[in-house]
């Protein structure tokens, strides 16, 4: 993404506060104007003093230092100083306010975007890299705007005012300096063109390292269990080395700018000093104006050096901006044409009508899925790993849209409804129990934010988790830590089940809901689930086939398609794949010879 494009995108956020931004720019203009007239003001005093000294040396009658004039110049210099420091303070204060508000809006947009982006994006990108875009990259942009924007504007205005002042003082001498400026520009563009690519690679390498580190911290127990510490360290070192190399290359190329531009600036400084001295001797330039001219050379060189120093920060921000706005430009979940809506309460009739789907359109996973679920029925989905069980649920929840065919709830094609309208009818308990850092009470209330304490406790009792919660320190007010490892995995699973109970869904989905609990807890959960599923359409992805014997219909999936369907007795009588699966859990056959459900 081009730097100018990133600036335009950032301006979309800054212009929401264009009143304060305009004040900052006006204050910056005042600051630079008062800075530009400083050499002229000092030059007035120096010129007057030089004339006074010459008169005294030449013995001019009544010659002396013109103190009233010098005092007037000092007053003028003091007023100029007030304008300079006042403008600097107002510019920094107002711009800081604008930048922080604009970045607040940017973070909100990123958060909103994350909730609208399709599940497939998160399937194909590291969580750590996404977090790096939301945190590190936004911070890089904030720092650049906060620390560099005013300085860059000041540098441009400072150079402009200095050039104008030099043209007024002596346009011939000014042209000598101006002639060197294109050389500085060409060299800067050449260096920036090469360093920007390195900074982009550095930002990508940092995101990759961030993602890898996040994964390793999340799975540090497994790393220790399988003795993969050395392999992990080796891979980290490789990614760290890549970041080091890209960082060195970016910083080195960027650092070449200052010495090269300093050489050009010093050359210009020497030329101006020599030709200016000749002009003073010739009488076409006063001593004070020569001093002002030399000071203007410094006022041009100093901003150029400052811009070179900030080039690294700006290029890092540019690379970060590319990553952030690329994320914001990702296609959102396709809502389709919303032509229908589900009623406030659905009966729970579900129909899969010749559904075809593939994560990769060229390699379809499901070729023809059809089945009918009556309201209130319990449907179990079983099959080996990769058979498409979770994919079936993903399609039902519209995490993905079908390629062909239709999925209907109470006769309404879900593709014609909004995802929000659809998902509010579902309650879901996943195999991976997810809790956030807050009290157990608030984690339960996530299922219904309007639920009172009595309803929260009632849901916990139904899920048979109330007793466990009350034995914990603080009970319902105990706070789950960031890793959610201060309670057992089984307790986490029970809490997520209670959360689903509290949401009171029309259709319930249990994805391996009892896989993380022991046999005794499984019995308690099964009893609770029987109560919850009563009169409610339920889909159960089962690992322990003994828990689904009472299901109204069992779908057996293999390679993305339904190969058998019926109730437990019917499937056992067929003696097919389901019967093999079921019997394998109760005999002594070698597990390697059995395609176990997962």
Automatic annotation (TrEMBL):
Predominant place of localization: membrane
Domain ABC transmembrane type-1: 23-316
Gene3D superfamilies on file: ABC transporter type 1, transmembrane domain (1.20.1560.10), P-loop containing nucleotide triphosphate hydrolases (3.40.50.300)
SUPFAM superfamilies: ABC transporter transmembrane region, P-loop containing nucleoside triphosphate hydrolases
Keywords: ATP-binding, Cell membrane, Membrane, Nucleotide-binding, Transmembrane, Transmembrane helix, Transport
Domain ABC transporter intervals: 350-584
GO cellular component terms given for this protein: plasma membrane
This protein's record includes keyword Cell membrane: yes
Statement: the UniProt record of this protein carries the keyword Electron transport: no
Subcellular location: Cell membrane
Listed transmembrane segments: 21-47, 67-91, 149-168, 174-192, 267-287
Protein name as it appears in the record: ATP-binding cassette, subfamily B, multidrug efflux pump
UniProt source species: Aerococcus suis
């Amino acid at each position: 993404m081009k730097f100018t494009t990133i600036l335009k995108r950032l301006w979309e956020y800054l212009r929401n506060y264009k009143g304060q931004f305009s004040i900052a720019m006006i204050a910056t203009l005042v600051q630079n104007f008062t800075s530009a007239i400083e050499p002229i003001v000092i030059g007035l005093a120096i010129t007057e003093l030089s004339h006074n000294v010459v008169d005294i040396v030449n013995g001019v009658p009544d010659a002396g230092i013109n103190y009233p004039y010098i005092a007037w110049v000092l007053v003028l210099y003091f007023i100029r100083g007030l304008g300079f420091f006042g403008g600097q303070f107002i510019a920094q204060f107002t711009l800081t306010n604008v930048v922080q508000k604009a970045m607040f809006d940017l973070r909100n947009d990123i958060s909103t975007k994350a909730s609208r982006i399709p599940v497939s994006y998160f399937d194909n990108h590291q969580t750590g890299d996404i977090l790096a875009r939301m945190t590190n990259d936004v911070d890089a942009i904030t720092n650049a705007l906060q620390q560099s924007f005013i300085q860059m504007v000041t540098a441009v205005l400072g150079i402009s005012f200095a050039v104008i002042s030099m043209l007024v003082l002596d346009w011939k001498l000014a042209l000598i300096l101006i002639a060197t400026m294109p050389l500085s520009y060409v060299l800067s563009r050449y260096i920036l063109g090469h360093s920007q690519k390195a900074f982009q690679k550095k930002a990508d390498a940092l995101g990759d390292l961030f993602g890898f580190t996040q994964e390793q911290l999340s799975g540090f127990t497994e790393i220790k269990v399988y003795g993969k510490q050395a392999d992990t360290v080796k891979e980290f070192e490789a990614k760290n080395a890549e970041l080091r190399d890209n960082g060195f290359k970016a910083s080195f190329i960027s650092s070449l700018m200052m010495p090269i531009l300093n050489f050009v600036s010093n050359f210009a400084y020497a030329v101006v000093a020599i030709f200016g001295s000749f002009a003073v001797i010739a009488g076409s330039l006063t001593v004070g104006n020569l001093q002002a001219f030399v000071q203007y050379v410094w006022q041009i060189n100093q901003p150029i050096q400052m811009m070179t120093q900030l080039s690294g920060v700006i290029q890092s921000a540019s690379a970060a901006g590319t990553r952030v706005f690329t994320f914001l430009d990702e296609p959102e979940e396709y809502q389709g044409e919303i032509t229908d809506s589900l009623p406030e309460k659905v009966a729970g009739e579900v129909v899969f009508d010749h559904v075809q789907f593939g994560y990769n359109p060229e390699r379809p996973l499901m070729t023809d899925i059809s089945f009918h679920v009556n309201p209130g029925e319990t449907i179990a989905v079983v099959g080996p790993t990769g058979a498409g069980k979770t994919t079936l649920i993903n399609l039902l929840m519209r995490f993905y849209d079908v390629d062909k065919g239709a999925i209907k709830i109470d006769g309404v094609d879900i593709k014609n409804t909004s995802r929000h309208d659809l998902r509010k009818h579902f309650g879901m308990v996943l195999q991976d129990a997810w809790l956030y850092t807050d009290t157990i009470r608030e984690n339960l209330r996530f299922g219904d934010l309007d639920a009172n304490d009595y309803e929260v406790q009632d849901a916990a009792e139904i899920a048979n988790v109330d007793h466990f919660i009350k034995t914990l320190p603080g009970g319902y007010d105990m706070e789950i830590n960031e890793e959610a490892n201060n309670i057992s995995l089984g307790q986490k699973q029970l809490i997520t089940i209670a959360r689903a109970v509290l949401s009171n869904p029309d259709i319930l989905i249990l994805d391996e809901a009892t896989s993380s609990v022991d046999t005794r807890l499984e019995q308690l959960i099964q009893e609770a689930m029987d109560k919850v599923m009563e009169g409610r359409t339920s889909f159960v992805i089962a690992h322990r086939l003994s828990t689904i014997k009472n299901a109204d219909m069992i779908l057996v999936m293999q390679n993305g398609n339904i190969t058998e369907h019926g109730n437990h007795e019917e499937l056992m009588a067929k003696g097919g794949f389901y019967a093999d699966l079921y019997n394998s859990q109760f005999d002594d056959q070698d597990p390697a010879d059995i395609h176990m459900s997962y």
